[in-house]
Amino acid sequence: MNRFILISTFLFLLVTGIFPCRAQDVTPHQILTPTPSGQSVLAKLYREEAPKVVYVTGINVNPTKKVTDEFFIPAEGTHEENTVGTGFVLHPSGYVVTNAHAVNRTIAPEVELLNGRRYPAEIIDVIPEEDMALLKFQPDEPLPSVRIEPTPGVSIGDTMVTIGCPHALKFTLSYGVISGINRSSKVTDIPGLNLKGLLQTDAAINPGSSGGPWFNLAGNVIGMTVSKRGDSDGIAFGISLETICCRFPEMLHRAAARQWELPLTVTASRKNDPHRVRIGKLNPEFAQKWGLEEGDLIQKINGTETFTAVEYYQALLSLQTGSEVKLLVFRENEPETLKEIAFQLQERAPRKVEEIIGQRLYMKVRELTPQEIEDFHMRVPSGVMLMEVDASRFANLKHVPTPGDILARVNSERPKSPEHLVEILENISPESALDLVVLRRETKENNNTFIRIDFNNWTGK
């Protein structure tokens, strides 16, 4: 009997919370609220990480419907809506990552900070097959930037915290757990896109949350919101840490390559690799000079330990033209090969604009004049004027671009100048087909009609 009473008393104290090892110590609430202070971990995380999150918006268009309002000023009284999305700061100078679907239907995207300040943003790079985009804006002062989790492991049951702008409710915090890994999901706003290798969560995620960061309780990014199941609650998906670590460096490399001639690229492995900063493509002369090979490992940049490829580019983008970059490099399983190499950040050399555009698009183009922008009723000053076109490359199509037309879009990007058009083309595989949009003004009886012509999966062959 005494033994029965003792056990009963123990269970009573455990359940009621009087016993020090009470059951609620392991509930999510207790995990997120440390004692004795009672200060919420979520509140602390929000204060530290919310300034690194941005609201992404702009006038909404639907590029899949081939509407003219994407390029031309709409009729007076036309009702327009703004897109809503989320992004987060990768570099203090104003580089922001978000979903491709958050900007590919947006005219003149803008970002808004937690303090309410708004800035126009430029699309630097888009990886549509992963639904990623990199934006750049000019902040008034350096911004705090996120840290990507350096340890690749994310497990089912891990706590995740996200900050987003669902339905334009800006900087909303939500949390949950990683409910699943290696999921697949269609992206509603990009027809035909089915993403794989995604994380799943039960956190509250809604339209407008797209592009928002997923943090662990250490405040490091472990994922990025991409979609949710429209037919259910508590099922949402995010781009995995492995994909982030592999593809973010590609976008940041393009940002750096716009400024400087870079002798090498840096890549990351999707595997659980203890050496996650590897040399990718190399300039042959640079490789020969320093005895480098693709796959060699970078341990430090300018004396600072480099943990991830993202951190490598973050360090690079913090330098100025003329700065010397010193790398500590070694070959895997060959510690005796450890050596310091160096290069200087030199301005990007002018590209052979006419030659590159002619070889890829079979056109000659020039920058638009302010008068042409006005005459075409352009919504934003983007596009290039066609001067010459090799019509034989479009002979099997219903419409042929002609001099006087405007090349307004290549895939999802809108060229602002011939030089920018070259940057876009250099980022697309030469074997890839292109989606082009050309604008034309037709005049009949002193009346102007503005039309768009789409060339889908065009190769020029």
Task: Please specify the SSE layout and strand pairing.
Layout: H1 2-16, H2 28-32, H3 41-49, E1 53-60, E2 82-91, E3 95-98, E4 106-112, E5 118-120, E6 122-127, E7 132-136, E8 159-164, E9 172-186, E10 194-201, E11 213-215, E12 221-228, E13 236-240, H4 241-257, E14 260-261, E15 264-267, E16 278-282, H5 284-290, E17 297-301, E18 304-305, H6 309-317, E19 324-331, E20 334-344, E21 346-347, H7 353-361, E22 363-367, H8 370-375, E23 384-389, E24 406-410, H9 418-426, E25 434-444, E26 447-458
Antiparallel strand pairs: 1-2, 1-4, 2-3, 3-7, 4-5, 6-7, 8-9, 8-11, 9-10, 10-13, 11-12, 12-13, 14-21, 15-16, 17-18, 17-19, 19-20, 22-23, 23-24, 24-25, 25-26
Helix pairs in contact: 4-6, 7-9
Write a structural description.
The structure is a single chain. The relative contact order is 0.09. This protein has 9 helices and 26 strands. The longest helix has 17 residues, at 241-257. By secondary structure, the chain is of the alpha+beta class. β11 and β12 form a beta hairpin.
